[in-house]
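Batch manifest, entry 17 of 40.
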Amino acid sequence: MDQGNQPLNIRRSIAWTFSEQTLQYGLQFVASIFIARLLTPDEMGIFVLAMSVAAVLTALRTFGIGNYLIREPDLDLSKIRTAFGVMLLVSWSLGLGLYLGRDFVAGFYDRPGIGPVMTVLALSFVVSPLGAPAFSLMSREMRFKALHNIGFASSFVNSGLGVLLAYLGYSSMALAWGLLASTILHSLLCLLAVRDRRWLRPSLVHWRQIVSFGGTLSLSTLIASANADGIKFLLGAYMSPAGVAQFGRATQVPRLFRQGIFAPVSRVLTPAWSEDIRQGRPIAAAAEKLVAANTVLVWPAFLAMGLIAEPFIVLVYGENWRPAGQIFPWILLSHALLALLPQPEQVLIPYGKAGAILRLRSLAAAFSLSTGAYGASLGLEAFAISRVGAACFLMILVFFAVRPLLGVELRSFAACYLRAGFVALLAAVPAMAFRVTGRDSLTLLELLAIVAASAGLWLLGIVITRHFVWGELRLVARRAFGY
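Output type: structure tokens
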């Protein structure tokens, strides 16, 4: 990659991935508003529990092969065919395991409806590997515009069909069928987007090389996924599926918001920082800039939402979800803490520290699950508070893991935190003004007014603090409007 064009290429790539994530999460958020009124918390909880089982297996489905296809320097047809063959074996085996385990999971939670949902989810494991190599090859070629269009089309089908089937009375199965339809469309569009499809003849010639590369990373991903979804199992064991659904509803907004920021950046920065490291260029300054951007985007939004948490949830999702609003501030705080430092994979993968990722994720999962079990035994709010402790522990582990590589101390990020904290307090003034009224209900007009006023104060804050994000916004405006 030409070093002079690298910043421009990174900006353009991030712009496409940001657009993709924003549109996808926007569709999911709008669909969730309708779903919340069409399905009961118990129906929603059945899907969440079934999806949690599938999500753990999804962490193993690609077996790190997507990263292999993107990063392999001497990629040829034989290696792509082998990657496809390994993907088929792994994904189809996991899909069969998901199907065979459906009755056990349904019996464990005494919810027969979980079984049919898991059956449909198992079918997605059959379909997804058919387009996975094409997706990775397009990422390798930096075809983010095409991936943007494919992702949006798939998300539209997922959200639209899910809402339609829920309206027609398909209960929890509506979401499962929507997910399967989007998986089929995504695989088909990826296949149509690549010209050379000779790799569709699977092989196992280079399986040792591929398995060796993906094994450690896949195990780390599995542990992280088991942590994220295992806490839902713990909550389900102590409470009803409705309690799981309340927790899932409270986490939806911050998760979508944070992933909408982190995921697009990670997709671009991982190969970009890998190239920097291969060329002997330090990435400490880039990491500090990443933290500055994450905190100034996440903290103001989460502080404002936390101040109007319960009225916001009730307005958006309905009265049935008031318990989710009561734990919403704790969930927002736990997600805000994750912006303190780069995500571990963003730094450790470019440095080739797969073993460090495995150790970090293992320790974080052990702490998270143990504190989550204790919190769940005390109730929903205690469980939500335990997520704050788990986030703090993860950030401590990340700091000690990346400090030797970046050569920075925590005080190096102090300026980032101070600027973001000031901007967050300024942007949260409208929400604070509503909070002091003591009202427990919020109208749509009031919410829109708070959002507009907070956005204006956020812009004022980044101008006052001379935050680099202001310069990036001006650059985008100049290119968009030609001035």
